[in-house]
Every structure is written in C-alpha cells, then in structure tokens.
Amino acid sequence: MSTMFEDQIRHNIRSTYGLIVGFIVFVTIFIYLVGYVLSVYYGDSSISLIFLVAAFAISVLMSWSSYYYSDRLVIASVGAKPADPIRHKQLLDIVEGLKLASGLPSMPKVYVMNEPSPNAFATGRNPEHCAIVVTQGLLDMLDKQELEGVIGHEMGHILNYDILLATIIAVLVGTVVIISHFIWRMMWFGGGRGRRNGGGQAQLILLAVGIIFLILAPIAAQVIQLAVSRRREYLADATSVRLTRYPEGLASALEKMATYTAPVRTATGATAHLFITDPLKRRRRKSWWANLFSTHPDIYDRIERIRAM
Q1: How confident is the model at residue 23 (pLDDT cuts 50, 70, 90)?
Q2: Pick from 153, 110, 159, 118: which is nearest to 135 by CA?
Q3: Which domains does the chain have, with CATH numbers?
Q4: What beta strand segments (E) does 106-191 contain?
Q5: Is 255 designated active site?
Q6: Pick the catalytic residue: 128, 154, 233, 248?
Q7: Residue 81: enclosing H or E segment and its boundaries?
Q8: pTM for the whole structure
Q9: pLDDT tens for each residue of 249-299
C-alpha cells in the first residue's frame, strides 16, 4: 500500500510541473496569436513582438502566483472563514488528532463555509502549507466519527500531495476560461475603426479565433480536471480508513452526503474537483458517458469499496 501512495505522490509532483509548463506554453501562444491578429488589424508589425514578450512574462507570473497563492484564491472564492476556536472546537480537535496520527509536520489551517450543502476539501501546496475547508452543512449533518472519516480523507489528499495539483488546476482552469473570453470582447472593441482602416479581414480572423477558443476552453478545462485522476479519491478514502481505523465512519458520511441533492452554491466548474463529493451534481450516475466526464468516481462505488476494506 505504501508503494501505491509513494507512486501517487511522484505522479502528482510530475503532473504539477508538467501542467505549469503546459500552461506557460498555452498562454504564450494564445496571447501571441492575439498580438499577431492585432498587428494585422492595425497595420503595425511591432505589436506581435510586444505581445510575445508580454505573453511569456504574464504566463510565468501567473504560474508563479498559482503555485504560491492558489490556495488563498480558492478559499476566498468559496467565501470560507477561519474556524472559530469555541464554536468549532470539535472540528479543530479532530483535525489536530488526525494531524498527529498522520505525522503531518504542521497543523493545517481550518476554514468553514457558510453553506448548507455538506462537503469539504483540502488545499495548499504541500503538507507544511495546507488548509482544510468544510461546510457548515457538513458539521450539522455528521456525527463525530463520520466527521473524522471526512477529515481523514482530506488528510489523505494532503499527505499524497493531491492538494498542490488540484489547487493549481482550479486556478489555471479558471484563468483559461477568462482568457478565452478576453479575445471575444476584443473582437468588438474598436471594430468600427478596424473596418474603416481596411481591417475587415483581420476582424473576421479575430472573430473565428474567439469562437474557437470559446468552444475549446470548457472542453480543455474538463480534460485538465480529468487529468487529476479519480483514483486519488479512492486513495484518499483508503488513507482515511488507515488513519481512523474505522471504515464505517467515512462510508456513513458519504451515504448521508449523497442524500443531499442541493449543490454547493459557491462551487464552480473550476473548483468542483477539489471537493470530497461532486458539489454540482449529486444524482447517481448511470450512463458510462456521464461517468467518463465526471470529476469524481461514483459515490456508491466508493462506499462499497470502503466497507470492503
């Protein structure tokens, strides 16, 4: 089992660096193409060179920011607040206890979302810089042993370095979508001037590129999220069982969470893969097509596997 976890850690680290390099290449090419079209649009060849230099600088800066600050961006995006030492004492005690059991070098920061839908996720860049986020609905729904199972699962993501890859993906996927809309808006900005200066052909090129990226961006985002193997959820479940020594705690928690059909209001397509269960759709998937493009394995299959441990 330890070899499996070690392989997952190495895979996550390699995937993270590969994703960052791929993102730099993608953004550089994308912004350069925008600059090239604009150079034709305005009849100034220097624009494409300026955009090329700017594109590389921007992509490197964004990748660096994603590595060091992606966890803060994700926590802010879901509106999570630091856990209250008095109100959330049981939660903090559970996290501290599992921190000791897991051998984490430092206590994860703990946050609570004011959200009725039961869910949780872990974020950060390594076990020394990590956080666990739970919803108020999760705290209200689960008993202590079930909550321990969920926290153990999130500890698994921290120990296996899932958090680094998953958190960076959340930020970069959102960035890709924003960039795809950038060129769409540029298509209309100054369009009249471009046509008056004979730039009608460039305008059509810009329109075509904008449409292509608007179509491909969500597809690319989905593919990138699926690169975060759903196998990591099974490994995190196994880690939870190893830490708590009580499979029924996590299995029962997942059963209760599966009955709650409302989505997490602050979750988005970019952050869905972070959560312990799918925060956007909670119906049991029956078609192979739906399962193929899901960010999470079937929750009932996970429950069966946990109870078989």
Answers
A1: confident
A2: 118
A3: 2-78+168-227 (no CATH), 84-163+231-307 (3.30.2010.10)
A4: 109-113, 120-126, 129-135
A5: no
A6: 154
A7: strand 81-82
A8: 0.78
A9: 999 999 999 999 899 999 887 788 889 998 986 444 555 455 555 667 889
